[in-house]
Write a structure and sequence with these properties.
The complex is a heterodimer.
Chain A: E1 15-20, H1 26-29, H2 32-43, H3 48-55, H4 59-71, E2 75-82, E3 88-94, E4 96-101
Parallel strand pairs in A: 1-4
Antiparallel strand pairs in A: 2-3
Chain B: E1 9-12, H1 22-35, H2 37-64, H3 68-72, H4 74-107, H5 119-137, H6 139-154, H7 158-177, H8 180-186, H9 190-203, H10 205-231, H11 233-238, H12 240-278
Classes of the chains: A alpha+beta, B mainly alpha.
């Protein structure tokens, strides 16, 4: 997978496209619930609770999906906010607006 | 693999921090309690189930395994009672500490929810902290329950008087150390959590006192009053069968209220105070 420049990924910047060339990431992307989450996070940054309300999924399930998506660089933690009630909230955002899967088999030897 | 992501911004609304909002503390504690009812209830029910199993197995062990002469000796009975007490406190402290873990998951982790399935994972990591915290927080009550038995043997009525005298001490101890609870997960160790507790108290003692007294009045005082009613011989003698039944019923209701509602709300309220005083400065 192409590695985006971390400096570009500040709180508001989103890549237009991201090329996925890691075969391990492909199954993570092609999962129905994760795709729903990713699609929602492409539109705007959201907390787990926002995603729960929107997608009607268990927050624990959402958290595990987000962990998988974050670990492979498809989603990132965009900001942390403490609301007036003293509750900390984590916002997640998709890294790119579109994901392109580019796989070669057998992989080209370096 | 791509980078995990960029910089994390922290937008904090500073305007709402540091003001004396005890009523808001309790309201938010209550709302969050209702929103996270399942993991909280699961935690409390697990506590009861394990307590029951532990006490029943000790009783079973004593009555079936130990020889009759051992069971006849008062000192041995005292030892068994102490064993039951310690086991009960061990379980109670662990799971009541986990309430602060739930409050952390809901209010401080950023995820805004807690999971019942994380209970044992949490206890494996933070169990020792929860135990020590419980021992300090409920120190006077533990002490009282240990000396209550021998005192009752020496002279009946002393334990009751002591309970009256110990109540303010126990409450003061509770207020003095309760803010260490939210710091248990945030800080590296128990020592650091207690240091943070005193820092929190120095920052807004008035709010902590006010909120604790309000929470105490709502959640704990009814049960303490019912304990006094139950142990007081005057009330039981003069209240008749119906009156005694009502007192016992009130005792059970207030006990359940304190255990299932009061303690979780108190943990959430303490965490809310801690967060509103410390999170903006992180």
């Amino acid at each position: 997978m192409s590695t985006p420049d971390p400096d570009l990924l500040n709180a508001h910047t989103m890549l237009d496209q991201m090329v996925i060339d890691d075969p391990d990431v492909v199954p993570i992307l092609f999962h129905v619930e994760r795709q729903k989450i990713l699609l929602s996070l492409i539109q705007e940054e959201k907390t787990i609770q926002d995603l729960r309300t929107e997608l009607q999924l268990n927050p624990g399930t959402i958290k595990r999906h987000l962990l998988a998506l974050t670990n492979c660089g498809l989603v990132r933690l965009s900001r942390m906010v403490v609301n007036p009630y003293g509750i900390r909230m984590k916002y997640y955002r998709a890294v790119a607006r579109q994901y392109i899967v580019s796989l070669r088999w057998p992989a080209k030897e370096e | 693999m791509a980078s995990k992501g960029g910089m994390i911004r922290t937008n904090i609304d500073y305007q709402n921090y540091g003001k004396d909002d005890s009523l808001d503390d309790i309201k938010i504690g209550w709302v969050l309690f209702r929103k996270n009812l399942w993991p909280i209830m699961a935690n409390q029910l697990i506590t009861i189930a394990i307590l029951y199993l532990a006490v029943v197995s000790i009783k079973w062990g004593v009555t079936t395994i130990l020889p009759v002469p051992f069971r006849a000796s008062p000192s041995n009975i005292m030892m068994v009672l102490l064993l039951v007490d310690f086991t009960a406190y061990f379980v109670f402290f662990l799971f009541q500490g986990r309430l602060y873990g739930i409050a952390y998951d809901v209010m401080s982790s950023g995820d805004q929810f807690a999971e019942a399935r994380k209970t044992f994972q949490d206890l494996r990591v933070y169990g020792s902290r929860y135990l020590l915290f419980g021992l300090i927080l409920y120190g006077p009550i533990v002490l009282l329950s240990i000396i209550e038995g021998p005192l009752n043997i020496i002279a009946s009525g002393i334990a009751e008087s002591l309970l009256f005298a110990m109540f303010p001490v126990a409450f003061a101890c509770f207020i003095a150390f309760m803010e260490a609870g939210p710091a248990l997960r945030v800080k590296r160790g128990i020592k650091e959590a207690f240091r943070e507790n005193f820092r929190t108290m120095r920052r807004d003692l008035r709010r902590i006192l006010k909120t604790s007294i309000l929470t105490g009045l709502l959640c704990f005082v009814p049960h303490v009053l019912s304990i006094f009613l139950v142990i007081s011989p005057i009330f039981l003698k003069e209240s008749g069968t119906v009156g005694s039944g009502l007192i016992v019923f009130a005792f059970i209701i207030t006990e359940d209220w304190t255990f299932f509602v009061g303690m979780p709300v108190q943990a959430l309220v303490a965490t809310r105070i801690y967060n509103s005083l410390h999170l903006p400065n992180e």
